[in-house]
Amino acid sequence: MPRRLLTPFQKFVQLESLSGILLAGATIVALIWANSAFSGSYDALLNFQIGFESDFFSLKKPLVLWVNDGLMAIFFFLIGLEIKREVLLGELNTLKKALFPFFGALGGMSIPVILFVVLNEVPETSRAWGIPMATDIAFSLAILKALGDRVPLALKLFLTAFAIVDDIGAVLVIAIFYSSSLQLDLLVYALLLIGVITFFSLKVYYSKYLNLFIGIIAWLLFLKAGVHPTLAGILMAFAVPVHRKIKGSGFIEQLEKLTAKISLNSNPNSTLLTLKQIANINQLEDLTARYQSPLQHSENKLHGWVAYFIIPVFALINAGVAFSSNVAIEWGLVKNLSICLVLGNSIGISTIVLLAQKFKLVQVPRSIKPLHIIGVSFIAGVGFTMSIFIATLAFIDAPLYIASAKIGVLIGSVISGTIGASILYIAGTKYREQAIVK
User: Fold this and answer.
1) Which DSSP string corresponds to 101-167?
2) What is the structure's pLDDT at 182?
3) Helix, strand and coil in the chain, % to nearest 5
4) Residue % of the chain over a pLDDT of 90
5) pLDDT at position 327, please?
């Protein structure tokens, strides 16, 4: 495959891999902080109140909720952009392409849930069933990145597409099962607002500033309606156009004309630009903006912020579990979540994908062997970010179980990642040997 076709995906993997490293670092810092002599300052940071109150309107929340409800809305907006791109133009744009990751996601979502329902014996923890069904793409790709050329590129593509399908399932689960009591009128207003701005952006005129303003209003309406406000982020992503306003040939033609004008109006002995040059450069900026896909531009701009700031901050705020004797741990929940992340994903994904391959329902790339599928199915059990996020929603009315759920997610993710990396290392050795022979 030509290098120019690999570069965008390679950049994505590199970005997500570094995000996984930062995520691990933030998790370690949070755990040390929460169990140190300075744990009081950690709790104070989480519960620091930010916002405002008036006689007519109140929006005041602790920092932990601003991160989980606010910053994570941007994270979900980026997920929405990725889903839209993959469905329209990427690895999910045809039935044949989508079936391979779809069967993987089906196994990765259903079997962990079924296994948890079977194992759970405490009624109060039954709402945790959705926690082990999510895969953390940053951590997962970081593991694959660390294995280098031992892992075929097709396997990284599968994991990325699988995680996106998995995210769609997780978003639907959050929307349907983990939202509080609904105020239907506010929800209807929010959906109408998003529908109108989507039609306007796609058919009339797209303005990122107008969309941002409408997105904030929709976020507030979702919040007050009792639906988790991060869902406003993923819905607003579908209001961002994917098509460019100007095609390649027209762009090049106008670019050549502008370049000629800039050269004609330039003064090599002057430090400052002339008024004509400034006008030409402004036209060039407008031309460049019209040539870029708004969806791709937004995705590229946000990816760094999400990978290097939002996800590490989320981990720092949410991963600090205190292991002191004062904290009651529901070890049954810890055990069940760990088992579901490790065995639920590995058994579910590998069994369903390999069966689908056997019955010729999917076409698996030649470079991906059965051992690769088994290894990556274990890595899919690394459910850190989304799993912890669902845990905070599942036990929003029973915070005593949140610490137990987080411990279960941490233990299960570490075990899954370690087993998966070991299997892929072994499979990768054989993969490299075959490549050398060829």
Assistant:
1) HHHHHHHHHHHHHHHHHHH---GGGGGGGGGGG---HHHHHHHHHHHGGGS-HHHHHHHHHHHHHHH
2) 74
3) 75, 0, 20
4) 36
5) 66
**Number of structural domains in the chain:** 2
CATH number reported for the structural domain that contains residue 121 in this entry:
1.20.1530.10
Which domain does 85 fall in, by range? Answer: 3-179+228-243+293-437
- Span 41-51, pLDDT tens digits: 999 999 899 88
Looking at residue 383, what DSSP letter applies? -
Does 380 lie in the same domain as 236? yes
Kindly report the backbone phi and psi dihedral angles of residue 240, in degrees, each rounded to the nearest multiple of 5, phi listed first: -90, 120
Q: Clarify whether residues 314 and 258 are in a common domain.
A: no
Write b or e for each residue in 299-335: b if 16 or more Cβ atoms lie within 10 A of its Cβ, otherwise e. Answer: beebbeebbeebbbbbbbbbbbbbeeeeeebbeebbe
Residue 391 lies in a domain: yes
Short-list 422, 393, 337, CA closest to 113: 337
DSSP string, 229-252: THHHHHHHGGGS--S-SS-HHHHH
Is 102 domain-assigned?
yes
Segment 125-135 mean pLDDT = 93
Identify whether 79 is part of a domain: yes
Nearest in space to 151 (alpha carbons), one of 359, 438, 430: 430
Does residue 376 surpass a pLDDT of 80? yes
Identify how many contiguous H helices and E strands the chain contains and give both numbers. Answer: 19, 2
Same domain, 262 and 369: no
Residues 358 and 354: their CA atoms lie apart, in Å, by 6
8 — pLDDT class (breaks 50, 70, 90): low
